[in-house]
Amino acid sequence: MSLDGKIDDLYRQPLDAFVTARNALAKTLTGDEAKRVRAVVKPTVVPWAVNQVYWQARPTYDKLIKSGERLRAAQIASLEGRRGADVREAGDLHRTALADAVKAAERIAAAAGANLPADALMRTFETLSLASEPPEPPGRLTKPLQPSGFEALAGVTPAARPAATVARPFQGREPIGPERGALRPSDKKRTEADRRKERAAEEAARKREAAIKAAAAALARAEAAEQLARTAWERSHDKLLEARQALSTLKSER
Q1: How many other C-beta atoms are found inside a 10 Å radius of the C-beta of residue 53?
Q2: 37 and 52 inside one domain
Q3: What pTM, to 2 d.p., does this model score?
Q4: Within this chain, do residues 145 and 220 fall inside the same structural domain, yes or no?
Q5: Which of 96, 144, 148, 213 falls 20 to 30 Å from 204 in CA-CA distance?
Q6: How many domains does the chain have?
Q7: CB within 8 A of 11, min separation 6: which ones?
Q8: What is the C-alpha to C-alpha distance for residues 222 and 216, in angstroms, rounded to an integer?
Q9: Per-10-residue mean pLDDT for the chain, 254 residues long?
């Protein structure tokens, strides 16, 4: 097995066995390979659970990553003014994939005796799936991720808008002879004012596009959180019904 394969195996380990396994592997190596293994970072519990979805539930992980790619592409296409970008459908598919990934991570973590906060898992999965480039190699995540609001929109070039044109009022007859084409002092002042207006309009457009990006990302996070909350409520409600049924059964046996 290659050294990369052996390092992958470290990230498959139960979290409390990681350091022991890493040290044992390093002792079997020498030189740069041993140094490389000793430098391998132990993940914290949230990224460890995310890694386990990659190693143990790959279809769920791949579905999330692909849905994130589709959502990112749809949002970019929409902002760039391209037709046929169905952001709503891509967002729905991504939220479902996100909820499935969180449930898989919770299930794996629970089997290992860990109880993880769903919101921390959701933020990490969301950021990972919407990133234009993976922050760390798949299956080797070492720290939780926090969405900055622009993951899905990195590299966007907003659709160009027609430049505003300002009609120049007629100022008497046009100059003739050598003066034709020359700017009068009043024209120079007006041109500079127009430039200032254009710069202000461009800056306002940039701020507007940034606000749209942030709002779109915030909406995606809120909708994903709602889906997770609904799923958690349904699980809790099922447990409540089971508990009531168990209590009723016990009472009837008295």
Answers
A1: 26
A2: no
A3: 0.60
A4: yes
A5: 148
A6: 2
A7: 18, 43, 48, 51, 55, 139, 140
A8: 10
A9: 93 94 95 95 96 97 95 82 75 93 95 88 93 91 80 46 43 47 61 82 78 61 56 55 62 64
